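User: I want to check something. If I give you two sequences, will you return the structure for each one separately, not as a complex?

Assistant: Yes, each is folded on its own. Here is the first sequence with its structure:
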Amino acid sequence: MKLSEWAKKRGITYKTAWRWVKEGKMPVPFEITPSGTILVHEPEAPREGLVALYARVSSSDRKADLERQVVRLLEFANARGLSVGKTVKEVGSGLNGRRKELLKLLSDPNVTTIVVEHRDRLTPFGFEYIEAALRAQGRRILVVEEREVDDDPVPDMTEVLTSLAARLYGRRSARRRAKKALEALQREDP
């Protein structure tokens, strides 16, 4: 297929793909014809890999919701004829960029399909970036409920402010605890 078609299919610009060709950074084999056309040679069959379910709730008091979410994801996958190889459950804020289970899932090249109930279960912001990055690797995200859960921006802003406040106050609290521990050690030391 032509380089322009390949780039469009992967969600990148033609200019980026052309630069990769010139720099020798193309992730797939290609050839340049005598007329100058760049043809990309992709593997014929799509890559077989694991289908993973990803379920997340924001707090531990919603663990029952987490289990129900997994059941709905399994029903969706079974209805599509997908063979689930991995189920990942996580409790934590969607704004936390250091969710260990999600990071492991995204970095696992054997996982070719990730199934989530809503886009915001994966991440409330920047879903499109994750989706494009996975698509460029020949991987995909399936969303059970494509429509947004709520169009009201107030809960999103509240969650952002809560996350920022937690980081700020968490640091202060940690500093205070460390200072108290050092003072206690100095008092005990003769």
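And separately, the second sequence with its own structure:
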Amino acid sequence: MSDMPSCQFESRPRRIVIGSGGVQADFCTNCSVRPTSVCSVIEPSDISRLAEVAVETIISPGRGFIEEGAPATDFFNVTSGTVKLFKALPDGRRQITGFAAPGHFLGLAVSDSYAFGAEAIDTVRVCRFSREKMSELLDDFPKLERRLLEEASNELVAAQNQMLLLGRKTARERVASFLLDQMQAGLLPGQPPPSGGRLHLPMTRGDIADYLGLTIETVSRTLSWMRSQGMIEVGKGYAITIVSTAKLEVLAAGNG
């Protein structure tokens, strides 16, 4: 098993707020990621039931909270921050397999153990659900079960896209695909990405290179080339602004 940071949590149970209209879960009702997460299928009148079984968990940067191969006892709904997902080799080497943004639901294990590890890149907040409590919710809310199946299907599509990216795409196509994926993160299903705008990329160039199967130098050279072609602007630190979504889309599709 890799030398993974110990999983340390700062947690507090959700608070149920008693309002004039009855029992309400104010935090869940006002959650900014609810429209894009699995929780969106829970009706407002039932949101207090969801809040009763959720525990808000804060993970500091660099801390792991899912260990590959460990018992899959909990599910996690990311509400803020960015999570690094990875697979580990026995000698400690790791391969980054994805990045989870707010709205992503983690822990949909098909077995009793986690198939990947997860680590906070920046300060991450998640709603943590025990497997037992989630099973009770699925019994009471069939729509939630269907939504989780959709989430599992999306993960399969993402895995297939990652195989294509690593197996067939050029370095420029890989970086373009990554930037477009980051633009899409957090949008509602079917919602088109903005024509341009600044990307929030808390991961390091090394993380991006690992995920794309490239070297750090290749990622940096590719970004510089994209800048010269009027596709992006690169600011201080890791700030990237998309100048032309259309050009990125053409490049990512293999037509560049």
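Because they were folded independently, the notes below concern the second chain alone. Residues 1-6, 13-24 have pLDDT under 50 and may be disordered. The helical segments are 26-29, 47-53, 131-140, 142-168, 171-184, 205-212, 216-228, 245-252.
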